[in-house]
Amino acid sequence: MQRALLAGAIIGTIAPMIGVFLVLRRLSLIADTLSHVALAGVAAGLLLQTYPLAGALVAALVGAVGIERLRTSGRVFGEAALAIFLSGGFAVAVVLISLARGFNVDLFSYLFGAITVVQPRDLWVILVLGLVVFGAVTAFSKELFAITFDEESARVQGVPVDLLNLLLTVLVAVTVVVAMRIVGILLTSALLVIPAVTALRLARSFRTTLVVAVACSLVSVLVGMMVSFYLDIAAGGAIVLTALVLFGAATLARRETASR
Amino acid sequence: MKAGSPTNGYPFVELTDICFSYGDERVLDHVTLQIRSGDFLGIIGPNGSGKTTLLRIMLGLLRPDSGHVRLFGSDLAGFRDWNRFGYVPQKAVAFESRFPASVFEVVLSGRCGRAGLGRRYGADDRAVSVQALETVGMIEYRDRLIGRLSAGQQQRVFIARALASRPDLLLLDEPTVGVDVEAQEQFYGLLRRLNRDMGTTLVLISHDIAVIAQEVTQLACLNRSLVFHGSPDEAMRSGAVERMYRAESRLVAHRH
């Protein structure tokens, strides 16, 4: 349980940090796309009887680079690039799953998250990757803000925009893999996006947006995990539902202050 | 690098024989232009005349098909000192009014290039940003959300952002679009102060010919090629502007 809470706290911190940038750049779908690509990696890992998270990481990283290339080449229109990867990744996953003769318990735990089976090895992976994401976002926060607010002006100032875009996509890939263990592949993007959107409703500055997003996410994860533990329901679902409740509360609060 | 620092006598910007086409469409045709320290240059021309393209070439955002660009005495290829430029883009650029950023955070982001990759902003970055906000007269709004300001106020914040990097050359692309008349007066007053009191070189793209002709020291008329480059008085006398717009009667009516 303690392992699960620690893992939850780590993912609860890094997911919204990335999520805020994704939402502001209108790239929310990248999280969903990369989780489906990661699923192919998990399926491959299970099939080959190696560590599934490693497969997920490789697949997600390859997907991230591929998406970034396709996006910057400008040859595919907007979100279509993401749709290609999402469906492609999922198709590969489905084929691999059928090769392994269908669903098993392991696969379920990756699809829907499994707080009760967080192995020590998983925790180490989550801790290390979590630190990488946290460190990168913190180190480059001012550049990420600049390219999110006005990419062209950032480019003029000499900020390495293309590299940072790639970095961001890679960080999404890493975050997705980390989140997989707790909320499961299917709900990972919800954890990245919903607390970020909640914070945006209450935004007074960029800094407070990030702080509020992390706060909402941590509350959602910890409350969700508690609820799922005591009511014996899926953790991923409980976490995302809590996040949605917070979103609803923020929307109501916003309406209250607006009408005054 | 402060405004007015020596450049060995080289012009700040030297464009020689610049040609550029978007696909088949020739947008810039053998444009040769120099911008010297202390200039207040206005670039005017009809839509599609290549004004913004020329600006983007100066800023290194576009490579010309042919021709030569020298910035602050160095070839474009080897030029790295982009913080000597301050850029105020056209208003519509990628900016959504609900973006969660305070005025101060927006201005501070103008220090991004100067502050070094991966480092946090320091006390001097903040101090310069405060100064920039005071220069444009927006310091009381520092904690407001950028989206809550009027168009004219937002424009001044963007100018402050450009000033935060302590540029030698400030480039403004159609800065008065959507800004009301009173705010425009304040805006031009600010530009006058920047150019005359602080020695900042200014390049201003505008469609508002009459107003701009009053304010600038140098006028460039661009219509794919450089139709005219000289003082505004010369421009009016030679009839170059009218020729370029093919008899715009509005132009004459505004003169005072």
Describe the structure.
The complex is a heterodimer of chains A (260) and B (256). Chain A has one domain (2-185): ABC transporter involved in vitamin B12 uptake, BtuC (Orthogonal Bundle), CATH 1.10.3470. Chain A is built from twelve helices and no strands. Chain A has helices at residues 2-24, 28-47, 52-73, 80-99, 105-112, 120-139, 141-149, 151-156, 161-183, 188-201, 206-231, 235-259. Chain A starts with a helix and ends with a helix. With 256 residues, chain B is an alpha/beta fold. Helices cover 33% and strands 23% of the residues of chain B. The longest helix of chain B has 17 residues, at 181-197. Chain B is globular, with a radius of gyration of 18 Å. Mean pLDDT of chain B is 83; it is low at 1-7 and 247-256. The chains are: A mainly alpha (260), B alpha/beta (256). At the A-B interface, helix 7, helix 8 and helix 11 of A face helix 2 of B.
Topology:
The complex is a heterodimer of chains A (260) and B (256).
Chain A (H helix, E strand, L loop, with lengths): L1 H23 L3 H20 L4 H22 L6 H20 L5 H8 L7 H20 L1 H9 L1 H6 L4 H23 L4 H14 L4 H26 L3 H25 L1
Chain B lengths: L12 E10 L2 E11 L4 E5 L6 H8 L7 E6 L2 E2 L9 E4 L14 H6 L14 H14 L14 H14 L4 E5 L7 H17 L3 E5 L3 H7 L2 E6 L1 E6 L1 H7 L1 H6 L3 H6 L2
Parallel strand pairs in B: 3-8, 3-9, 6-7, 7-8
Antiparallel strand pairs in B: 1-2, 1-4, 4-5, 9-10
Helix pairs in contact in B: 3-4
